[in-house]
Amino acid sequence: MTQGNGTRDGGQPADVSALRPGGHAVVVGGGLAGVTTALALADAGVRVTLLEGRPRLGGLAFSFQRGDLTVDNGQHVYLRCCTAYRWFLDRIGGAALAPVQSRLDVPVLDPDRPEGRRLGRLRRDALPVPLHLGRSLATYPHLSLAERARVGRAALALKGLDLADPTLDTQDFGSWLTAHGQSARAIEALWDLVGVATLNAVAGDASLALAAMVFKTGLLSDPGAADIGWARVPLGELHDRLARRALDSAGVRTEVRTRVTSLCVNENGGWSVQVPGETLEADTVVLAVPQREAHDLLPDGALDAPENLLGIGTAPILNIHVIYDRKVLATPFLTALGTPVQWVFDRTEASGLKEGQYLALSQSTAQHEIDEPVAALRERYLPELERLLPRTRGAEVKDFFVTRERTATFAPAPGVGRLRPGARTKAPGLYLAGAWTATGWPATMESAVRSGVGAAAAALGALGRSRGLLPDFFEFFEEAA
Ligand SMILES: Cc1cc2nc3c(=O)[nH]c(=O)nc-3n(C[C@H](O)[C@H](O)[C@H](O)COP(=O)(O)OP(=O)(O)OC[C@H]3O[C@@H](n4cnc5c(N)ncnc54)[C@H](O)[C@@H]3O)c2cc1C
After folding, report:
1. For 121-146, what is the mean pLDDT?
2. Which pTM does this prediction carry?
3. Whose CA is nearest to atom 10 of ligand 1?
């Protein structure tokens, strides 16, 4: 097994974790859910080993090198209402590197209006909910006056939905929007603009429960809830390097390139965790791996309906990376209508590019393009960028490449809610974490972190230990776990 960077910061003895009461916990999977679980357990005084199959931490949110360029596998953003992910950033000492904009401001460009190119903005004011969006909606140029009024009425109806109502998950968001007077244009120019990026599905394919969760929490809870945050450094700096430093300081033994192959109950009633060349004994195991891997590792009887995990579908996200020889986009990001281009982000600074500008196009719901050759994508997207960003017209494209994440998120389809298990299994000492578990959130960093704290809280409860430093906003996990 590759020994991870197990050096302990702060002059602690290397075997300090062995002295801790509460037994030994093994966390499988070093994505955000697993890192969170490991930190939360270690913070509560449990001895923890974190096992990750890949050479780095961060799971689906990572960076890699392409020559001098540091590239994120996919643009990641979060909202101010993502209290768990923000706690995580704080916990690893990364909050200042991924700040939230001071006030929601999203430029929305439609290049094809009869009167010419039209730039609208989704902004908020410093007014109470729902007035904070009133001015922005009233002046949003991509909808007619009647459509804007109907959007306001639908938003109020959405606000009235009870997220605890199980029937919401049986309906699709698109049908609900149509039934509440939303035109196809309103769905495209407003609801899907937000929904596709946060749910990775168009409204017609999304569970009303998950959509209501996103819109109620993001747009209708607190005036600042939807302010957007994103990393000004590569994701790997946060989710790998700083996460690793925090784990080391907390006394977690972290092993990368260490894939768990099986899991079984040992003769003491604890767990034997098998990795190539070694068996780890543990009192507590948290599987923080994707749903299919969790299904394959779960022992018989651990869940009533383990096949549900295989019923949770996945959805792809494609990122298109374009390096221009000059600055072509003046804002940090932009979204657009009437074009295949969804969200465009300026990645220049974070990537370390010295000259020109690096744009990343984040393309959710990419089912139809995820396997397309780079040449075909180039032929489609460069002209689109010329249409959207006039300054690209005389610019030279220095590099063009794509990153494909075929299983970027779980598919937020109607009915998915009943397939998502909570943190507890029927096997004592065995827990589940991952963005796909029953957090109530779509597949996001927020969901991953929430699931990790939920699993840690459930494990600590069973060990009869206090929740340590786990913050209050996780209270609902006491019930969910
Ligand atoms: C391109 C892209 C864009 C995204 N955009 C956003 C966004 O803007 N905002 C947002 O909030 N979210 C976004 N997401 C979603 C977000 O990245 C994920 O929801 C989150 O990172 C999932 O974390 P996780 O820990 O639950 O799972 P994962 O990240 O999948 O982690 C699971 C880990 O388990 C490891 N593993 C699997 N099997 C084993 C084994 N047998 N032994 C040991 N280790 C194992 C894997 O290697 C992996 O590291 C995006 C995702 C992608 C791919």
Report:
1. 92
2. 0.94
3. 444
